[in-house]
Amino acid sequence: MKRFLLPLLAAIGLGTASANVNPEWIKADFNGDGRQDVIATTNLKDVVFNDRGEIIFYHVKATAGTRFIQAKGEGQNTTYDFNRLKSQVNLVRSGSGLQVVLPGNTAKPSTVQPPRVGKNAKGQLTATFNYQQGDVSVTKSVVLQPRQFGFDVETNVTGADRYDLNFSGLARNNNPSTKAVQQGAADVRTSGSVDNVRYAALQEAINPFFDPQSQFKTALIVRPIGDTRFGATLQGGENARLTLTGLTGNARLEVYGGKNELIRLYKEDFLREPGLFRPNVFGDLSLLIAQLMDILYRFVGNWGLVIVAITVLIRLAIWPIMQNQMRYTTKLQFVQPELQKINEKYADDQQKRMEATMALYKEHNVNPAGCLPVFIQIPILAVLWNTMRNFEFNSGLFWLPDLSIPDPLYILAVLYVAANLLSIYIGTRKAPQMFKQQAFIYVIFAYFAITFPAGVTLYWILSSLVGIVQQILINRQMERTMASLNVSRVAPAGGPSVSPSAPKSSKPLPNANQGGQAKNKRQKE
């Protein structure tokens, strides 16, 4: 399918929404200093190392799979355009990251060997850097996970009693929060020097209630691996800096440079660190959903099937709420002709119009508060959506190469619009004007279906399909109830209304408590 659709999309100028970035190393002079740098590019990040293994540029991708590096030519004649990448936010705001500092050593790095880069059997990107600084020999190795923001670093320094590692700045934030916790402690230190740290971090602050920019907030977290021990000096403000101190000989550490977001930190096992991230109530719900998804994956072994299962389970859980809301909407459509007559009759008398409207609602058992369930379900669905868009799905489904990136063929976007238009049509058959108003909104939402991860769009489609089934069942139930009480019967979608025994004029809607009384009242009249 891709072989035929991709050329067609290119021919009409659409291209693809995104592409699955194959993790690889690129060798090129990134900053124009005449020295060869190496660039690790993955779905989640682009990281530029100089020939000493210092990070000079680190971009966290807001949309996974986005390509910021353009290759020109083939083979040995390949050149790269980094202008688009350079225009993005750099996690290392100034200076460089992973910079080895030798106290008292004023010699300049020399005898720098070309970096050795490659990819191991697990698909991890590996690189080794070697250089001399006076009498000191520095070897630095990095292992980058293609589907994670975290990566491992190992430094080996000989000829020096101790050394430090510098991480400067944090993205676009001039005043990130600084944190560190000692081994065996739970108290969070936010400034000064901390010995024997469990972790040290620079984080962009997030509004705990609502933050529309939360998807763009980042964090830099460092923690030791194995028996490695070091301290940390925290410096905030405009020149924010995180310095790891007291390192000796061979040291191993784990570095997280990515989104300062609950689900991502959970998936990469940083959420367990004390004081690092405090979720609110909605965050706790997101975490429960993420844990449930992990459990389901152990049984089905495919993230696409997990999305299907979790969507159905959540929709079934809120079925009663949705059912009440849909019944309310359906009843409103059936009494709409009577409401229109009331509005025309009492156009100049608001008090009588309100009294007549409430009397009509009471006669037909239409609760004016029936729309409240929709506000109850919104937080639940929002939590589920937020979990989906931050979850890392490391597999594809059908034509989709990766559920963590947008659908490159736009098929899901088309299905999303079609499913929602069908849902609106079924729910507003008695009010064509409502269909026109709501349909326009979902056509606009097609843009988000194009840019969001395929897993999120798949969830939207499945959720809409479950809602369609629910609306059809409710419509049929309403039709059977009306027919049994000899009230106007609604024809199938697209067909005319049928009234085998009732007059063509609108009649009161049946309800469980007042149906018999209303019928007797009409007979007496």
Would you kindly provide a brief summary of this structure?
The protein has 525 residues and is of the alpha+beta class. Helices cover 37% and strands 22% of the residues.
Can you walk me through this structure?
With 525 residues, the chain is of the alpha+beta class. It folds into two domains: 17-278, Beta-galactosidase, Chain A, domain 5; 294-516, no CATH class. It is 37% helix and 22% strand. The strands form four sheets. Strands 8, 9, 10, 11, 12, 14, 16, 17 and 20 form a nine-stranded antiparallel beta sheet that branches. A five-stranded antiparallel beta sheet has the order 7-13-19-18-15, with no helix packed on it. Strands 1-2-3-4 form a four-stranded antiparallel beta sheet, with no helix packed on it. A hairpin with a 6-residue loop joins strand 5 and strand 6 (79-81). Helix 6 (319-345) packs across helix 7 (350-363). The longest helix is centred in the C-terminal third of the chain and has 31 residues, at 454-484. It is elongated and about 95 Å long. The protein starts with a helix and ends with a helix. The model is unreliable at 1-18 and 485-525 (pLDDT under 50).
CATH class of the largest domain: Mainly Beta
Average per-residue pLDDT, rounded, comes to: 76
Helix content, binned percent: 25-40%
Described by strand count, sense and barrel closure, the largest sheet is: 9 strands, antiparallel
Q: What is the count of DSSP helices, taking H or I runs of 4+ residues?
A: 12
Derived from helix and strand composition plus strand pairing, the structural class reads: alpha+beta
Q: What's the count of strands?
A: 20
The third-level CATH topology of the largest domain is: Beta-galactosidase, Chain A, domain 5
Q: What is the straight-line distance between the termini?
A: 67 Å
Shape type: elongated
- Strand percent estimate: 15-25%
Low-confidence stretches: 1-18, 485-525
How many domains would you count in the coordinates?
A: 2
> Any idea what the CATH architecture of the largest domain is?
Distorted Sandwich
Radius of gyration: 30 Å
